[in-house]
Every structure is written in structure tokens, then in C-alpha cells.
Amino acid sequence: MYQARRQRLRERCAAAGDAAAVVSRPANIRYLTGTAPERAALLLGVHDPAADVLLCAVAPGARPEEGRPDEALRLQLLDGPGADPAVAAATLALRQDRRPVAVEEHDLTVARHRAMASAAPGIALTDLGGAVEQLRYVKDEEEISCLRIAAEITDQALGELLESILVGRTERHLALELERRLIDHGADGPAFASSVGTGPNAGLARHQPTDRRVEEGDFLTVSLGAVYRGYRCAIGRTFVIGTTPADWQVELYDLVFAAQRAGREALTPGAACRDVDRAARQVLTGAGYTEGLAPVTGHGVGLENVEDPQIAPAAMGKLDARVPVTVEPGVHLPGRGGVRIDDTLVVRPEADGGPELLTITTKELLAL
Where's the Creatinase N-terminal domain (predicted)? Predict the structure, then answer.
């Protein structure tokens, strides 16, 4: 699988006239090699697959979350503790007389790019651009299987939390417990810092948990995700604590749920990303909520928390089958709280049943 991925990149580089490529972005390295150890770079030989080398400071495999490297790939450890793997890769390309060399300029600092040019004088450094990210855009079924397991772990962790006593506990404590439960159920770790918001903090995007305690009558919003074999998912849910929801809470929840459903139903191969955003956003704006809406309704997920595509008003491009995305509209009312509902789905054609919902925790407005 990894050899096939590297071959697709090789073909792109050959078409551009490059003799080698240095991949430095960690998610791209993992996609092409199966591992992403700290301080690593991949040297890809465009005309000679046997020349592929993963240069790293420490041999991968010591930590399970790093993944295991493709056995067909040659490893080379860096000489010193301060050595830069991208610079070492450029030096190796010079020794092998491979020129020009494509590099990921969007991942490199100016200083690192200059150091590579200095270490390999006479080798032209061209821009690889987002070639690897473009290969990663559509997932294969092995990747989707990893996302599916990450979603199952996330659902399990959230489901167990909902069965515990919540009143009186702090946002920070609940967030830490969620992350512990993710690990307990087999996650490599949390995909991102878990967010718990109660009362006036509920519904805030990317809310950092505080020491505010959960009170009866609060909205409670939770956002979390697991990493499994490098692949990340996200889920967001909103609940009411300890009592029958107030009328305004039911009304707001039903509105956000309708927006989220409209966005999910718009996920079809060939759909414009901006049209998916519009489908969800117009439900909220049509009800008079125009201030404070998130700039995006969703985004791609995979080896990184946020990947292409962006589901936003000005987003370019269209969806393809087997592209995993989030749909996560929300409304926050200052001083009162709000609602967020977030799912991870895979775009599928209608013939295959339409979008595949990976995160399946109920979206019913529960009173916990």
C-alpha cells in the first residue's frame, strides 16, 4: 500500500521533471511510509524506487502512536542530535546526483529552505506544492476503516461519560475524563484537546474548559475525537443537565439539528463545497441567526484534524466519493449558552446508501 502511494507521487514528480523529492510534513510522511517519528524526512527517488530513504533521529516503532514503517523502506539515522532531517535528505540527494529536488515549501521555514540549499549547492530546489495532500484527499477503504474505529472509540468514551453523574463537576475535569476514556478504549490519543462547555460557555467553538461547575438546567456541549493508527475523527453533542429542557433550549436545539441535517444530506459526490455550507447555514440565517456563526460549517479529516476540503461560504472545489468530512454547525447566545452538533461522515454516492455516518451517538436532546 505504501509503495503504491509513493509510486503515485513518483509519477507526479516525474511529470514535473524532478529527479527526487524531500517530504517533510509529518502527516505526509506517515501517509507515504506508515510512520511519522519525530524529526524525520522522506527522500523519494523519482526514477529509482530503491533510492527511497526515511531519515530520522530515532528509529521508528518505539511508540505505538508513531506507526510502523513500510518494511520495504530503507531507514537512515541522523548523525547528530541537532541534525535536520530535511537538510540531511538534500545532502544525500546531492551525493546521489539527483537534481532537481522538489521540496514542500509550505512546510519549510525560510531558514530550513536556505539550509537545504546551502547543504546541496548546485541542486535546484523546486516546489512540490500540495502534491501529497492531493493524493490524501480521497481515502482508500483501509483509511476509512481506521476512521471508523476511531469513531467507535469516540462514541464509547462519550457514551460512558453520559452515564455518570455530571452535576457539580467542572468542565476541566470532564474533559480530562473524556481523554482518559479514549485511551482506555484503544485510542492512540485524543485527536485534539477535548472541549466541554456548560451554561454560558455551551455552544462556543473551540472552548477551552474552565473550572466552572455543571449546574442543573445548563446546556452542556462536548467536543472530542480519537486517533487510531494516525487517523482522526470528531464528534460534538449538546445536552441539558438534570431537568426538562426550557422552551428556548428546545427551539434552539431543533434549529441547529435541522441545519446539521441539511448539511449532511447535501454531502454527495460532485456537490460544491460552498453549496454544502449554504445548505446548513441558510437554516440558521433564515431563523435570524446571522451574528457569530462559525466561518466554516465543516472540513475534511484524516491524518490531520483539519484537511481539505473546507466547507465554507467561499470554498472552492467539489466533493468526491470516499472523502471524510465533518458537519458541525452551531449557535451561541452570549450569556445564555448555545448548541453545537458535530458528526464525522464519509461522502458516498446514493447507490451506496449516501453519506456514511461514522459517529453514531444519539442526537436526541437528552436531559442528563
Answer: 5-138
**pLDDT one-digit tens code per residue, 33-52:** 999 888 999 999 999 999 99
- DSSP states along 321-359: TT-EEEE--EEEETTTEEEE-BEEEE---GGGTSSEE--
Q: Which three cell numbers stand for residue 194?
A: 477535548
Cβ atoms of 27 and 143 within 8 Å: the answer is: no
For 153-190, how does the pLDDT look when each residue is reduced to its tens digit (9 = 90+)? 999 999 999 999 899 999 999 999 999 999 999 999 99
Sheet with strand 324-327: strands edge to edge: 307-311, 298-300, 324-327, 343-346, 356-357
Measuring CA to CA, how many Å separate 288 from each of 259, 328, 331?
13, 19, 11
What is the H or E stretch that residue 259 is in? Answer: helix 247-265
pTM of the model: 0.94
Q: Is it true that the peptide bond before 85 is cis, omega within 30 degrees of 0?
A: no
Backbone angles phi, psi at 50, to 5 degrees: -70, -15
Strand partners, 255: none
How many Cβ atoms from other residues are within 10 Å of residue 179's Cβ?
17
125-127 and 101-103 strand pairing: parallel
